[in-house]
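Supplementary Note 3. Input sequence used for the single-chain structure prediction.
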Amino acid sequence: MVARPPVAIVVDRMTVDDLIAVHVIERESFSTPWPAHAYRQEIEQNRLAHYVVARYGDEIVGFAGIWLLVDEAHITTFATRTAWRRQGIGERLLVALLDLSVARGAKEATLEVRPSNIPAKRLYEKYGFKVVGVRPRYYSDNNEDALIMTTDSLDGRPMRDRLARLRAALAARPDIELGLDGLPIDRTGAAGPGSAEGAAGAGVDGSLVAGASSSIPGPGESRIIRPSDVSRNRE
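The predicted structure, written as discrete structure tokens, is reproduced below.
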């Protein structure tokens, strides 16, 4: 029995007012979360950074971000509340990031993902990302390599057609059903919350987390903006 009517998820820009909820998800999702001031700094000072959140009413249930570097969009982070995973929220966030990348003139999108993060890798492949290289011992927590994944041209016909098809499929999905506890009902038949480290889908559907030291500076900076990972996600 469903206690409440199905809900629709809305993706929009992350604001300072969202940061308390974002920090909760950050701490829930990552073993080495960014410090409390990191997202505020990204929003207020880093002109390369763009972050979005997934909302269910007034509740933040996921977030994601990119850095737009010249004509490349680098996906930096993805996370979804544990109880809301496997509901397509990460996939909605990924579509929003790709749409934003196109709107801002990016020619391709790229990210790092752990080879062990199979769900994330599959999700990224679904959206046209391909493995183009490897960063040896990229992840500081266990020295795992990172796969570098990049899309074909975002303004090319193949990617436009792929995104249009996947966007239509997302729009056709039923709204999320809530149980008596007010949390989503898992219709996937999966056992447990599932997780994947790396980037992709789970931040798109699956659960990912990619952890690695960032060496990409903000405007006019040479420091490491994030203390641990640049490309990571958990959905």
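Residues 87 and 225 are 31 Å apart (CA to CA). Confidence is low (pLDDT under 50) at residues 190-231.
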